[in-house]
From TrEMBL:
The keyword Flavoprotein applies. Belongs to the pyridoxamine 5'-phosphate oxidase family. PANTHER family: PYRIDOXINE-5'-PHOSPHATE OXIDASE, PYRIDOXINE-5-PHOSPHATE OXIDASE. One of its GO terms (molecular function) is pyridoxamine phosphate oxidase activity. Its cofactor is FMN. Residues 158-199 form the Pyridoxine 5'-phosphate oxidase dimerisation C-terminal domain. Its EC number is 1.4.3.5. The lineage of its organism: Bacteria, Pseudomonadati, Pseudomonadota, Gammaproteobacteria, Pseudomonadales. It is an enzyme of class 1 (oxidoreductase). SUPFAM superfamilies: FMN-binding split barrel (SSF50475). This is Pyridoxal 5'-phosphate synthase. The keyword Oxidoreductase applies. InterPro entries: Pyridox_Oxase (IPR000659), Pyridox_Oxase_N (IPR011576), Pyridoxamine_oxidase_dimer_C (IPR019576), Split_barrel_FMN-bd (IPR012349). Keywords: Flavoprotein, FMN, Oxidoreductase.
């Protein structure tokens, strides 16, 4: 009989394999997932995000804390994710609590971002009114000249978040729908269980 830890690790490993398979087959945005959040009044919203890492601690992604999703994650730190790879006829859904990560984690991944993306994060805060045409490019060039060869510091609003799964469900989408659907669930006692579901 598999232990709770083994069941959870198995689920994460299967998710990682699907991402790698999608990447190997040339699927665009293989690391992208729909992130569903809700505000303090339970008004839902959903958008695509890039999942930076699938780790035992959870799934890592980033958000501007002043954006809609950032505010919702702070006010109501629970979310769902849905990966869908049409080419593989596979989808995976997850849900759980979302934990804002340390400054060190945010800094570490900020340094890996392309310089142009870093500059844009300063010039174009997510969700704010767009500047006049051409103004954003001018501001990016201005900031780049001011920094010279210095690294672009992390915007204080650009933060790492981690979804800690409590449910992971593999739901193949091929037709006819006779493929195996599997749900991994963290129960009230903290132990993980695995169950086959009707497609």
């Amino acid at each position: 009989m598999k232990s709770s830890e083994a069941i959870y690790r198995e689920a994460l490993a299967q998710l990682q394999r699907l991402i790698e398979q999608a990447t190997a087959q040339g699927v665009e945005e293989a690391h992208a997932a729909a992130l569903a959040t809700a505000d303090r009044y339970a008004h839902p919203s959903v958008r695509m995000v890039y999942i930076v890492a699938v780790e035992e601690a959870g799934l890592l992604f980033f958000a501007n804390t002043e954006s809609g999703k950032g505010q919702q994650l702070i006010d109501n730190p629970r979310a769902s994710l849905c990966f869908f790879w049409r080419e593989l006829q596979e989808q995976v859904t997850l849900e759980g609590d979302v934990i804002r990560q340390s400054v060190e984690t945010s800094d570490n991944y900020w340094r890996k971002r392309p310089r142009e993306t870093q500059l844009a994060a300063w010039v174009l805060p997510q969700g704010t009114p767009a500047p006049e045409k051409g103004e954003s490019r001018r501001q990016v060039r201005q900031l780049e000249q001011a920094l010279g060869f210095e690294p672009v510091p992390r915007s204080p609003n650009w933060c790492a978040f981690r979804l800690q799964p409590e449910r992971i469900e593999f739901w193949p989408s091929g037709w006819p729908r006779m493929r195996e659907r599997v749900r991994y669930l963290k129960q009230a006692d903290g132990l993980w269980s695995e169950a086959l579901l009707s497609p």
